[in-house]
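Quick one: co-fold with FE2/S2 (inorganic) cluster.
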Amino acid sequence: MTAVEQKFMGRGSLTEGFGLSTEPLPLEPYYSREFFELEQKMIFRRAWLYVCRAEELPEPGNFVVKSIHGTGVEALITHTKAGRIQAFYNSCPHRGSIVVKESAGKASRFSCPYHRWTFENTGDLVGVPDEENFFPSMDKKNCGLAKIATDVWEGWVFINLAAEPEVGLEEYLGPAKGYLGGILYRGAHNPVVYTAVLDANWKTASDAFIESYHIPHIHKKTIGTTFASRLNPYSRLIGARPLGTHRTISLFGNPEYTIDPRNRVEALGSMGQEGKSVIAADVSEEATRFRAHPAINPDRSEHWSMDINQIFPHLHIDTGPGSFWTHQFWPIDEKTCFYEVRFYIDEATSIQDRFLQELFICRVGEVVLEDLANLRFTQRGIENSGKGVMHLQDSEVAIRHALTQVIKWTRAQTVKEALA
Ligand code: FES
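Sure, here it is.
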């Protein structure tokens, strides 16, 4: 056994390294209406929430509309003339109509479809039909679109629904800011997006994507031999660390993985492309710079496959050998959530690249579907538990930390207390 193998096979408890207890954890937060309402108030109305990448709004005038599921808020996010990214409530200050019906577009002004009040993309009200018939008490300066606190960190656009956020985005990100800072997000302008409404609590769904214990079972036929091996048959994590209220884990990759010759499509895609199969690293200079970041394969393990960086409460930024992808889980109610996964991929420069990309998308789509298909059974069982608790093992440390943080936020009187 090599030193690296000894390091992760014989390492100490990750859970203790997080400073967490090893006791069973309650299942009630995964189905209780009361807990859902508490989360809405204490987390989703106080935490900074990721809404989109800045690349979705590349130029002044670009806008997107995002539903903040569960809260009832619809956010209109604009790239203003002044070059700032700013979110507003997509609600007209006249009588409340939705102002923008499209989900994305480009416009320097927005005109409410109901009575045609018109707003700059800075939110300022600039046009009111038959303005003279309103009353002198109405001050146009106070009738612009209502702002939502917005900040951007390295291309990640966040909003905060508190009237006055208690902490800024940088303080909120805490150690995650320095840890992840400076990653070269390749292909960030070119996502492949899948969305779904899931019959599962948002945490049930999120938990399924922050542990690898299930891989040899749920994904036996698709990626079982990619993430597990003789050496590590249960796909134990190779590393994990807390980042304040956030966290990161690193997954095992089987260095002995070879393409099954019966899998002719994958073999064809990889032909003549050493190191560029759908699971291996892209050998381009840009991919090499991407992987050089200290947060990507932080232990520099030859057994590494990918990292999962979980930004509280509901964003996963996953980094692999040559690219990144995100998962996001928006609570709709205590038993339903909205799921979005985005795979960011550079444009292909050859037919073979394109072929490989399509193959990658099909394969990961299949793997994600295996996870999603299992969720409703997990949720049903959680609601039907005779004991009311779950027993987590060491490789499920991210679930333990995530739930511990959720519970902490629901009890904390202030955001600073939740982040402490
Ligand atoms: Fe928008 Fe009347 S509700 S102009």
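If it helps, The chain has 13 helices and 19 strands.
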